[in-house]
Amino acid sequence: LTDAASIVVDFALGNNFLVTIGGNRTLAAPSNAVAGQTGQIYVIQDSTGSRTLAYNSAYQFVSGASPTLSTGAADVDILLYSTRSSTTIDAALLKNFD
User: Fold this and answer.
1) What pTM was estimated for this model as a whole?
2) Which strands form 6-7's sheet, in the order they lie side by side?
3) Average of pLDDT values for 88-94?
4) CB atoms within 10 A of CB 10
5) What are phi and psi for residue 14, nearest 5 degrees?
6) How, if at all, do strands 38-45 and 59-60 pair?
7) What is the pLDDT of residues 24-82, one digit of tens each?
8) Residues facing residue 6 across a β-bridge
9) What number of CA atoms fall less than 13 Å from residue 49's CA on the CB side?
10) 40, 43, 50, 67: least buried by Cβ within 10 Å?
């Protein structure tokens, strides 16, 4: 994925994605979402760390609480997702991989 203020994931391009974020970002609503698609999005902090990630309302999390990323320099988190519909993405964040 391309790092930008608003990160758009095109689900037609695959199931698994990676982005290294260089600032506070928003994960925009995905394009080309198809019900039943699953995958993961690796979110890596740059060498500075302390970056945040906000989520478009298409992303739904357990108990409605948006997770926060690990904040160390070069920390790796994985956002697991399952597409419930073209507009609803169920997701969970696994944090702080080495």
Assistant:
1) 0.95
2) 6-7, 25-27, 53-55
3) 98
4) 12
5) 155, -170
6) unpaired
7) 999 999 999 999 999 999 999 999 999 999 999 999 999 999 999 999 999 999 999 99
8) 26
9) 9
10) 50
Sign of CA dihedral 28, 38, 22, 72: positive
Cβ contact 19:41 at 8 Å? yes
Asked if the model's pLDDT at residue 98 lies above 90, the reply is: no
Best CA proximity match to 45, nearest among 66, 83, 74, 68: 74
How buried is 97 (Cβ within 10 angstroms: 0-12 exposed, 13-18 middle, 19+ buried)?
exposed
List the one residue out of 69, 74, 71 whose CA is nearest residue 98: 74
CA dihedral 91, 38, 26, 70 (to 10 degrees): 60
Q: The dihedral of CA 95, 64, 1, 87: what is its sign?
A: positive
Look-up: residue for tokens 């080309």?
Answer: 32
Residue 15 has pLDDT above 90, yes or no: yes
